[in-house]
From TrEMBL:
It comes from the Eukaryota. The chain crosses the membrane at residues 309-329. One of its GO terms (molecular function) is integrin binding. Residues 107-205, 217-301 form the Ig-like domain. This is Ig-like domain-containing protein. Keywords: Cell adhesion, Disulfide bond, Glycoprotein, Immunoglobulin domain, Membrane, Repeat, Signal, Transmembrane, Transmembrane helix. The keyword 4Fe-4S does not apply. Residues 1-19 form the signal peptide. It is a single-pass type I membrane protein. It comes from Oncorhynchus tshawytscha (Chinook salmon). GO terms for biological process: cell-cell adhesion. GO terms for cellular component: membrane. It is found in: Membrane. SMART domains: IG, IGc2.
Length: 372
């Protein structure tokens, strides 16, 4: 039973080879619009009365005594062409084979835009980008690719079968953040025409869409509490990032020793010779068209640090030393008197007499007073 079935299968295969003796080279073609194309149709059979091609362009009438006929078109523009090679066998049969043809065309233009919006975008808001592709074929081989910079975002394919050129659009939803400010979005129309198609795939890319993202202010890192010794200088800095650049304002109790200064995006409160009246809450506010941010800084004034204590101690010590020196000097001054001394070569039994400091008297040659 099995041998009988195998024999029937062999007969069917042989019969099929005999009744369909045509071969195309190449078996299918991919042609760019308005390009040339050439395909050979051949047979191994000698039992035929001729071969030919039927086609709207490049058709070949029946040729006898040949084993190969060639279909050639110099400028292919027929989107629906289906060339067919045929052979007239002597038994009256006419086997034929259709050549699959893909005629493709790259788009005339690819552009990208933002739907229902113009101008800067706002952080956290959704927007729809649209890629418009004009005059492309075939649609079922189209792949639309989205990019942000060089980063792939999404691919869009189409299930519609259409051989003729069409206009088509693809969309992409985005929700930009502050890191996307200045980013470039692009879309690319790519025709994936299979292994018989050109490699790499034919592509047309849009001009980049540059986006501007506005976002609310955000403060840069800073201290929420600041300590300063009384009599010292201190600066309170406030800076924030935002787009557009935010306006910076300080809110505090005014004082003569408090000044404001601005350097770039930084707004600074400068306090010279701080006192206890400068202690308190200092509020910095950053504002732009998107939003407002607030930072509170608490300033604490200390009665004195270690350096102040040392300085005060030294001043007290110096004052005490000076005071002691003055007291000692004054006491010694009060104890001092005036004396005349006998030279060392005089007899030592002569008494030493104090000289009068009041009035005038008579004196003997030795300097002693005389009696009146």
């Amino acid at each position: 039973m099995i041998s009988l079935m195998l024999g029937l299968l062999m007969l069917m295969l042989l019969h099929g080879v005999v009744t369909f003796p045509l071969e195309l080279n190449p078996p299918r073609v991919v042609v760019r619009y308005r390009d040339s194309v050439s395909v050979n149709c051949s047979t191994s059979s000698t039992d035929h009365d001729g071969m030919g091609w039927e086609a709207t362009f490049g058709g070949k009438s029946l040729e006898q005594d040949v084993n190969v006929v060639t279909w050639t078109v110099e400028n292919l523009t027929d989107w629906t062409i289906e060339p067919k090679c045929y052979i007239n066998l002597n038994d009256g049969k006419q086997p034929s084979i259709v050549l699959p043809v893909i005629l493709y065309k790259t788009p005339d233009r690819v552009s990208i835009s933002v739907l229902s919006h113009s101008g800067p975008m706002v952080e956290g808001t959704q927007y729809q980008l649209q890629c418009d592709i004009q005059n492309i074929a075939p649609l079922q081989n189209l792949v639309v690719k989205w990019y942000k910079g060089n980063e792939p975002l999404d691919n869009v394919t189409y299930s519609n079968v259409s051989k003729r050129p069409e206009d088509v659009s693809a969309t992409l939803m985005i929700s930009p953040n502050r890191n996307d400010d200045g980013a470039q979005y692009r879309c690319r129309a790519e025709l994936d025409l299979g292994p018989e198609g050109p490699q790499p795939h034919p592509t047309v890319t849009s001009e980049p869409l540059n986006i501007t993202v506005h976002y609310a202010p955000e403060f840069l890192p800073g201290n929420d509490t600041v300590e300063v010794s009384a009599g010292s200088d201190v600066s309170l800095n406030c800076s924030a990032e935002g787009n557009p650049p935010p306006e910076m304002k300080w809110n505090y109790t005014a004082a003569r020793n408090v000044k404001l200064s601005t350097e770039g995006r930084q707004r600074t409160v400068r306090i010279t010779t701080a006192t206890s009246t400068n202690a308190g809450i200092y509020i910095c506010t950053a504002t732009n068209i998107v939003g407002t941010a607030t930072r509170t800084t608490t300033l604490l004034t200390m009665k004195g640090g270690s350096s102040s204590i040392i300085y005060t101690f030294l001043v007290i010590v110096v004052f005490l030393v000076v005071l002691v020196v003055l007291i000692v000097f004054c006491r010694r001054k009060k104890r001092q008197g005036h004396y005349d001394f006998i030279p060392v070569n005089q007899p030592n039994n002569i008494p030493m007499m104090p000289m009068s400091t009041t009035g005038e008297g008579n004196h003997d040659p030795e300097g002693y007073p005389t009696k009146v």
